[in-house]
Amino acid sequence: MIPIKTKEEIAKLRKSAQLLVKAFRAVESALGPGVTTEMLDRIAEDTIRSSHGEPAFKGYKGYPKTICSSIESQVVHGIPGERVLKEGEIVSIDIGVKLEGYYSDAAKTYGIGLLSSDRTLLMKTTCQALHEGIHQCIEGNHLSDISHAIQDCVEKKGFSVVRALVGHGIGKALHEEPQIPNFGPPRTGPRLCAGMVFAIEPMINMGSPEVSFLDDGWTVETVDGCPSAHFEHTVLITKGEPEVFTLGIEENGDYWSKNGERTSH
Ligand code: MF3
Ligand code: CO
Q1: Which of 115, 121, 182, 249 stands the most exposed, by the fewest C-beta atoms within 10 Å?
Q2: Which domain holds residue 156?
Q3: Would the pTM of this model clear 0.70, i.e. be above it?
């Protein structure tokens, strides 16, 4: 069963997402060439804890950090450490917050300095695909309408959808029913109802969709070594337009990179 949230739960989820947006802002203000992913992790954790939240990922199945930072050919679940971000790279930052018992989850891919045009297009397309999926978050639609819209958007641009990982329901747990693949035929699976909350998260590769899992137990990488991008929002289905709880992470979203090429989406 896909949980339906009450008004009270929705209010808590909204609050959790607001703290998550605050954590993204703090990370963004430090992001740039020369910064280590460990530094970003510390900033995110301090921001979340100083507002009485908890990092949702830290300790989840033994995950050691607050954020996932996945650089270039890393798809998701990269563990922060001493690696220094360099001009021309793209990095996905994924953060989860638990506040008053309720989880929010979001991710955004950033460019460091000037980017190649194919990386910029990969990021723009992944963000666009997420929004095409969100556009299908309408009561009465089928779950796979989200999946199909994402796949369609991505493949039109010649990029590929990672199959091995999926989006998910979210609320009192980080991962709830249903699983939300980023590919598939339209009009299958359960019908969407007001009160469902989903973390939709396309992971999109520039080259082949194949991924491998590193022996650190977490990091997912492209097999061909080509770059990958990842965007994620926590989204509420309503009787009308969906409410994107984490939309605030896009507030600086007209600028894909802090110091370099500026490309609007
Ligand atoms: N957004 C990711 C997910 O939903 C991040 C999880 S990282 C983990 O799976 F450490 F918590 F697994
Ligand atoms: Co997620």
Answers
A1: 121
A2: 7-264
A3: yes
